[in-house]
Amino acid sequence: MITPFSFTENHFRILDQRRLPGEEVWLECTTPEMVAEAIRSLAVRGAPAIGIAAAYGLVLASPYGRDELMRASDILVRARPTAVNLEWAVRRVLTAVSLAGDTDLLSIVKQEAQAIWEEEKLANEAMADRGASLFVAGKTCSVLTHCNAGALATGGIGTALGVIRKLHEQGKLAMVYMDETRPLLQGARITAYELHQDMIPCTLITDSMAGWLMKLGRIDAVLVGADRIARNLDAANKIGTYALAVLARAHGIPFYVVAPRSTFDTQTSSGEAIPIEERDTSEVLAFLGSRIAPPVSAFNPAFDVTPQELITAIITEDEILSGHGRDPSGTA
Ligand code: MRU
């Protein structure tokens, strides 16, 4: 399974996802600033993956003492605002440090970073099993996914792509449709790369084709990841997810969010309070580095929020959440 980073003999390397699928380039990160920049620039991306990367950013700071660790924490949590996993992982490492008292800082931080990564991998496996159990045996289905919620976004088998991998393994999958995911093409570049490598049947579409495919009856379910889930279960994910949820509801198609507990934000009451990252407008005005529009203004929110009433169920590692008496299998 492809991995977004590696940590061996105190070396932290990040696979530069901006270069995929053309080239596999590994960035050697030696400082927390380099990790924060890799997160900001999307060399490493995906909610659980940026949490794990931030934890390793703290490993790089810890030989220099507690003050340096605190300074690195501030830099890392500010790298991107929407995925709560980033803040969650940094807080978790700092809590482990404060509980450990005067023990060797480097070994505590390293141990906690490793534990976070291991737990995310296990959570991915558990979500895959739970999610696949919602799909009936003896029948194949075609699913639609958006952005990349796979190995490269999590460090495990993926959230939405973990369920999809499991469906494939269980002989329940006919086809995965992947939205290209404008403006940065995480679907076309990264999801397509992962599924192609694993020889899972997949078809790439542009974002604007999803509704028509649903109308044609070619989509049985939508499976996406999340970057932050509020207390009322509104879920932020890559821009375009909300539109898919509206389309799925209009066509009577189940819409599943697959996310680990590290993506749940109990401090935020509803989606309205989720901070939405706005990225540089050049990402919209240009395509693969070439300008495509005249000098007009542009708007580039990186995420949107799907209200809980449009979500059939949220699949987590320990339970399937389906509010308001909804049948999680999406058949009712
Ligand atoms: O901007 P990105 O590529 O970090 O956005 C990632 C997503 O929106 C994913 O769907 C989300 O993080 C879930 S990852 C398992």
Topology, pairings included?
Layout: E1 5-8, E2 11-15, E3 26-29, H1 32-40, H2 47-61, H3 66-77, H4 84-100, H5 105-132, E4 141-145, H6 151-154, H7 160-169, E5 173-179, H8 186-197, E6 202-205, H9 210-215, E7 221-224, E8 228-229, E9 235-238, H10 241-250, E10 255-258, H11 282-285, E11 286-287, E12 290-291, E13 303-306, E14 313-315, E15 320-321
Parallel strand pairs: 4-5, 4-7, 5-6, 7-10, 10-14
Antiparallel strand pairs: 1-2, 2-3, 8-9, 9-13, 11-12, 14-15
Helix pairs in contact: 1-2, 1-3, 2-3, 2-4, 2-5, 3-4, 4-5, 5-7
The protein binds 5-S-methyl-1-O-phosphono-5-thio-D-ribulose.
5-S-methyl-1-O-phosphono-5-thio-D-ribulose binds next to helix 2, helix 6 and strand 9.
Describe the structure.
The protein is α/β, with parallel strands linked by helices and about 325 residues long. It has two domains: about 5-125, translation initiation factor eif-2b, domain 1 (Four Helix Bundle (Hemerythrin (Met), subunit A)), CATH 1.20.120.420; about 125-320, Rossmann fold (3-Layer(aba) Sandwich). It is about 40% helix and about 15% strand. The protein has eleven helices and 15 strands. The strands form four sheets. A seven-stranded mixed beta sheet has the order 6-5-4-7-10-14-15. Strands 1-2-3 form a three-stranded antiparallel beta sheet, with helices on one face. The protein has a three-stranded antiparallel beta sheet with strand order 8-9-13, with helices on one face. α1 runs parallel beside α3 (about 65-75) and α2 packs antiparallel against α5. It starts with a strand and ends in an 11-residue tail after the last strand. The mean pLDDT is about 95. 5-S-methyl-1-O-phosphono-5-thio-D-ribulose binds near residues 47, 153 and 302.
